[in-house]
């Protein structure tokens, strides 16, 4: 049996290859891919191969339907039964490997930019058969934001009256805004330079938005907070300029969670005296996720649906497998929000 995989063969170039699907063993599963989001990490690998994985099949925000199961596979990571026909998502393997970022395996059916995926033994799989495709595609980025929120709770207690700034309202920042809303935070400020993304931020929970193209965002935050500044800020841009600015949004005894630097984008500057010591600022960083974050993310997305929050609005563009170069270009352009691959076969 053959399948199709979108292989990154060199920087800025993906080729769709038809290859034999390996036979699964007693501890593996074969999944028919239904869809996968394009992550900023995929784009970094596409543009410059920072992980030195080429040739590689990308895609780690995927979901699909089980079509074959090894006899030893019985349940998902939470103990929920699994059977052929169930819909799954898959977090990191217990050894830390992430599908779509696995260079060096003997086959390419290890990333979600394909029409079939082999799920390795000891993978962190979740049965999400009750969720529609577009919500399932969003579980992985929701796990990223869930981890950021969990790390933030270690240094700050969010209250209904807290004022929270989310700088950078791409997919992760938008997820953070929605999660702040589900926590009951009543004052959420989205900061970005993209007008359409700011409009979406308001639809899913931001009480105010600031377009950096309209003037000094620090002054705008101070104006919205009566001159005091915000209690907490999430830095989701991946921009060194944004990482240098985030400190200035805060009131004394505030907190920051840095979410935006999954890869090395360079150095940012701050003043230890004025930005940390005098205001006694608390700081944490967030790196990817752990399996429990996937459980939290799934419940969060289910909750948004029951509360009438349409998170599927984040998905703005969909491409078939043979248009992955176009999908990457769309992501790079910044003109959409969540760009996805959907299997049309």
Notes on the structure:
- With 345 residues, the chain is α/β, with parallel strands linked by helices.
- It has two domains: 2-130 and 311-342, Quinone Oxidoreductase, Chain A, domain 1; 142-285, NAD(P)-binding Rossmann-like Domain (Rossmann fold, 3-Layer(aba) Sandwich).
- It has helices spanning 40-48, 133-137, 139-153, 171-182, 195-203, 217-224, 240-245, 272-277, 291-306, 324-333; strands spanning 2-10, 13-20, 29-37, 56-57, 61-69, 87-90, 116-119, 125-127, 163-167, 187-192, 208-211, 230-235, 250-258, 282-285, 315-319, 338-342.
- Strands 3, 5, 6, 7, 8, 15 and 16 form a seven-stranded mixed β-sheet that branches. It has a six-stranded parallel β-sheet with strand order 11-10-9-12-13-14, sandwiched between helices. A three-stranded antiparallel β-sheet has the order 2-1-4, with no helix packed on it.
- Helix 3 crosses helix 4 (171-182).
- The two termini are 15 Å apart.
């Amino acid at each position: 049996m053959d399948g199709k995989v979108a292989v990154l063969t060199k920087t800025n170039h993906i080729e769709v290859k038809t290859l034999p699907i390996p036979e699964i063993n007693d501890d593996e599963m074969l999944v028919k891919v239904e869809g996968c989001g394009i992550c900023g990490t995929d784009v970094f690998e596409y543009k410059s191969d920072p992980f030195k994985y080429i040739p590689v099949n990308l895609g780690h925000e995927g979901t699909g339907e089980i079509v074959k199961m090894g006899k030893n596979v019985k349940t998902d990571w939470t103990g929920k039964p699994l059977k052929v026909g169930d819909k799954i998502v898959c977090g990191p393997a217990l050894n830390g490997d992430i599908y779509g970022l696995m260079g060096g395996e003997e086959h390419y059916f290890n990333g979600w930019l394909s029409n079939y995926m082999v799920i390795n033994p000891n993978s962190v799989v979740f049965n999400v058969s009750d969720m529609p495709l577009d919500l399932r595609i969003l579980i992985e980025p929701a796990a990223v934001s869930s981890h950021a929120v969990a790390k933030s709770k270690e240094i700050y207690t969010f209250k209904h009256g807290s004022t929270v700034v989310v700088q950078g309202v791409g997919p992760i920042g938008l997820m953070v805004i929605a999660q702040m809303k589900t926590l009951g935070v009543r004052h959420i400020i989205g900061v970005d330079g993209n007008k359409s993304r700011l409009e979406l931020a308001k639809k899913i929970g931001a009480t105010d938005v600031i377009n950096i193209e309209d003037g000094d965002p620090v002054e705008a935050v101070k104006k919205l907070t009566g001159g005091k500044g915000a209690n907490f800020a999430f830095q989701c841009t991946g921009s060194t300029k944004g990482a240098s600015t985030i400190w200035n949004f805060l009131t004394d005894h505030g907190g920051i969670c840095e979410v935006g630097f999954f890869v090395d984008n360079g150095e940012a500057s701050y003043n230890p005296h004025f930005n940390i010591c005098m205001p006694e600022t608390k700081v944490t960083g967030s790196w990817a996720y752990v399996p429990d974050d996937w459980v939290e993310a799934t419940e969060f997305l289910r909750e948004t649906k029951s509360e009438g929050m349409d998170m599927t609005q984040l998905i703005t563009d969909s491409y078939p497998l043979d248009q992955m170069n176009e999908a990457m270009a769309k992501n790079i352009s910044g003109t959409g929000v969540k760009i996805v691959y959907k299997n049309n076969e």
